[in-house]
Amino acid sequence: MRIINFLKITLLLVFVLLIAFFGYFFTGKSEPAENISWGINFSQDHSEKLGFSWQDVYFSLIDDLGAKKIRIAVNWDLVEIKENEYNFKDLDQQVQIADDKDIELILAIGMKTPRWPECHIPVWVQGFDENQRKERVLNLIKEIVLRYKDRDSIVGWQVENEPFFPFGQCPKNDKNLLKEEISLVKSLDDKERPVIISDTGELSLWIEPAMLGDIVGITMYKIVWSPELSSYLSFPYPSVFYWRKAQLIKKVFNKEVICVELQAEPWVPNLIYYSSLDEQEKSMNLTQFKKNIEFAKNTGLKEFYLWGAEWWYFMKEKNNKPEIWEEAKLLFN
To answer: Which pLDDT score, from 0 to 100, does residue 32 have?
Structure first.
C-alpha cells in the first residue's frame, strides 16, 4: 500500500512539474525588443560551393545588402592546409574590408565551425590521436587570435560552434578542451573581447554555454528536414519559449543571449548544392522568411545573425529570384 501511495504522489509531482514547465515556457508573450540589431553569417566555403567567388558575395553583402555585422566561419581546413603552414590571405582580406567599411565581425574559430560537416578538420590531422589533435586546435586558435586581436572590426570571438550539441561529423565532445580554448583566447586578447559559446536554440536550456562563455549564442530554426521522420518538421515553440529561457540565463548567470543563427535558408534532405529549387523552397521562401523575421522580433532578443545570406545571393544571381535579398535589405537599411 505504501508503495502504491508513493507512486501516486510521485506521478502527481511529475504531472504538476510538467504543467508548470509548459505553463512557463509555452504560454504568455514576450515584450518585443526595440532597436533590434541585425547581422548575417558568412562562409567563404559555402559561397564558393554555390558557384561564386567569395569576394563577389562578401562585397555584395556589405555594399548592396547593407550588412554591418557579420559572423565569419573560420574553417580550419581553409587556413591550415598543411601542418604549420597557414594561409590567412583570404581572411586577412575579409577583416581588412571590415576595418575599412566599419563592419563589426565575430570570428567563429576552433575545430567545429558553422556549416556542414561542422568539424572542418584538415586531411593531415585525420591520423592524429586525441592529444595531438587537441594540441593542433589550441595552436590554431593561438595563431588566429594573435593575428587579429588588434583589429578594430573584431568585436567578439566565438569558440567552437554548438560544442555541446552532438551534430555533424565530429570527434566526441571534449569539455576540458573547450575550457582550455576559452582560457587561451582570454589570455591572448588584451582587449578582453567577449567569448561567445553557442548552443541549439530548440533542444537545450543553454546552461553549459552560460557557465563557460561571456555571451550565449543560440540558433533559431523553424522548418527542418528530419532524417528520423523522413519528412519536414516544424518546431512548435512559441516566441516566448526563447524569451523565458533567455531571462533565466540572465537572472541565474547574468549573461546575455543573442541569436547567432536565425534560419533564412532551406534545410533540405541533401545539401543545397544537390537540391532542386522546388525542394529548397519547401523550407524557405519569401513568405517563410517574413514569418521568421516576425517570429524573431517577438522573442524579445535584441541581436540576430541571419543564416543564409549567401543563398539569397545565389537565388538572386543564378535563379532570378531576388525577392528575399530585397526583403532583407529592409532590415539593414
So the answer is: 83
